[in-house]
Request: fold
Amino acid sequence: MRSESRELRRREIVEHAFTMLARDGYAAFSMQALAKVSKSSKETLYGWFGGKAGLYEAMVAENAAALVLPSAEASDGVNELSRFGADLLAMLLGERAVLLNRVAAAEAGDDAALGGLLAENGRDHVMPKLAAYFHALEERGVICADMPEGPGEIWLSLLVGDLQIRRATGALGLPTHEEVRARSARAAALTFQLCGAKKKPGAEAGF
Reply:
């Protein structure tokens, strides 16, 4: 199977897995049932994913695959960070992310590894790249990051807050696109204000 065809087939299987996981739950979900629904062999599934945990990891990665990280070269830094923040927040609060978080929480007593996979392919994957983005902004003199908490942590706290846990527990419904964009724009603007580059002495006088 060509690499393009294999990747397409792999993504189709992951799509089937999301549907089955939402319907049956992780405990009742089986690779055998997935093989039947997706018209695949169990050998193929185990060869590609290595088991339920590996499939879960692939689902986490697939859910975040469409994210395009912000560019430090963008002419409008606030708008660029706001764009990425809206995409990230929509993903984090979406039905699939809620499902994956609920599974990790529900299985924590029996399979704590799922929580680790969720973090590894989520926050732990994005934060180093986000730190590099803010470092590039600092190198360009756009922001000043000499504070106990890095700008990435500050921005993420302003963007997400407790929304993700409230979504996972059912205390919060799915926000509208307008609400997501507005929150992201606010988080980006506040982050650039809080981490704004310090002016050199005498700059206001034109020295």
Q: What stands out?
A: The chain has a mean pLDDT of 89. The two ends are 66 Å apart (CA to CA). Residues 3-24 form the longest helix (22 residues). The chain is about 65% helix and 0% strand.
